[in-house]
Amino acid sequence: MDRKTNILKRFIIYMAVLTFVMFTVWAFVKSFMNRPPGDYHTEVCDIRLKDKKYDQALDAADMALEKTPNHRGALMCKALAYISQKKYFKATEELNYLINFLEKNLVDDDKTGKGTLAAAYANRGIIKDRLQNYEAALKDYIKALGIDYEAVAGPGLGTIILNYKFKSSSVRERALYLNEQLQLPEEERVLRIEELDAGQVMHKPGKL
Prior knowledge:
Layout: H1 2-33, H2 39-50, H3 54-67, H4 72-84, H5 88-105, H6 111-130, H7 134-147, H8 149-153, E1 160-161, E2 167-168, H9 171-182, H10 194-197
Antiparallel strand pairs: 1-2
C-alpha cells in the first residue's frame, strides 16, 4: 500500500511539474505570437547598430517598417543608424516624422511611447548640438526633459564632456551647461571643445 501511495505521489508531482512547464512554454509562445509585426526586425536593427553594421541596421529597420508602418522602434533605430553615420539630414527627417507621429497618436498611459518621444527630442537636440545650432539644441533638450524627465535626465544618455571644469552625463546637464553659456557675451562662450565633445552619445529608451 505504501509503495502504491509513493508511486501515486511521484506521479502527481511529475504531472504538476509537466503542467507548469507546458504552461510556461505556452505563455512564451503566445507572447511571441502576439508581438506586433516588425518587432523582430527592430531587434535585429538594434543588434546591428551595436555591432556598428549600420547598413544592415537600416535594412532591418526598413523590413520592420514594411510589416508595421510607423513602428516607433524601427523609426528610432533608423534615425540612430543615420546619426552614427553622420547623415544628420536623413536622421533629422526620421526624428521629425517620429515626433510628429507620436505627438498625434500618444495616449496618456503610454509610458514607453512618452519615453520614445523624449528620446527623439533628445537625439534631435544632439544633432543640432553637433551642427553648432546651440539655441535650437537647447530647446529640444528642454522639450525632452518636459516630456519624460526620467527617461533622459539620468546617466543613461551616456557620457557628455563639454570642458575640463564641467562634466555632463545627461541631457539635463548638457541643457544646464548650454543655458549657462548662452547667457554670456558671445566672445566668452565655450560651447564646443572638439576632442572632449566626442563623448556625447545618442539616447534610446530601454524598450521600443
